[in-house]
Design brief:
4-stranded mixed β-sheet, alpha+beta, two-stranded antiparallel ribbon, 228 residues, 49% helix, globular, 8 helices
């Protein structure tokens, strides 16, 4: 059972952690490369602000973005802004998302995200939590996958293994951290490959943040995952 109110509180806490970390930077630091290819730290922050507004659109029944081109153009436009403007935008857009989430609503309704993807409205706060936590790591400012809340890491591993479940290009795979296990990839009576490692390394591999060098694959090679 998804608790959207709990997830909204988790988003608020994660946003405060990110803002506290970013406030220690300077304008020059924002122009430096992030861990995402082709993006500076300013691009990451601009994306986070615009994503909050996009998810407000989703919750209020509007298209998430006017178009993919508009989304990309808005990020490029906002990426070079100075630190104080970036901080204010991330904070204010995050507050708008929280206010929308606090309004009375039918959280069982189905909403539409990008590219025709649909989901329960109740999962939108968790999707925002994912954006804030993983992009905090992407900033490269000392917040690592190992620093993520344990609840978040477990739930995102579950979410991503479900996302790749049934994918024809991913072999039937058992994913385990030694105490918990998840299944992903093609349908099969038995897994073709078992991938084991720490929760942080498993999440890094599934989310495309690590190549998986620290993971152990038995029964076959470490599967190559499609882009998210």
């Amino acid at each position: 059972m998804i608790d959207h109110a709990h997830d909204l509180a988790s988003v608020r806490d994660a946003t405060e952690r990110l803002l506290t970390a970013v406030a220690k930077l300077d304008n020059a630091s924002l122009a430096e490369p992030s861990r995402l290819p082709g993006w500076t730290r300013g691009h990451v922050l601009a994306h986070l602000a615009r994503n909050a507004d996009a998810l407000v659109n989703v919750l209020e029944g509007r298209p998430m973005y006017a178009s993919g081109e508009t989304r990309d153009a808005d990020i490029e436009r906002d990426a070079p802004r100075p630190l104080d403007v970036q901080l204010a935008d991330v904070r204010e857009s995050g507050s708008r998302f929280q206010e929308t989430g606090a309004a009375p609503a039918d959280w069982t309704r189905t909403v539409e995200l990008r590219n025709g993807v649909t989901d329960s409205a109740s999962r939108v706060p968790f999707r925002r939590w994912v954006e804030v936590e993983l992009h905090h790591v992407d900033l490269g400012v000392g917040y690592e996958l190992e620093d993520l809340p344990a609840e978040f890491t477990e739930r995102e591993i579950e979410f991503l293994t479900q996302r790749f479940s049934g994918h024809p290009d991913v072999p039937a795979t058992r994913v385990t951290d030694g105490t918990r296990a998840w299944s992903t990839g093609r349908e099969a009576a038995e897994p073709e490959v078992t991938v084991s490692g720490t929760p942080a390394d498993l999440l890094g591999w599934l989310a495309g943040r690590r190549e998986g060098a620290a993971l152990r694959a038995t029964g076959g090679a470490l599967p190559k995952l499609p882009p998210l």
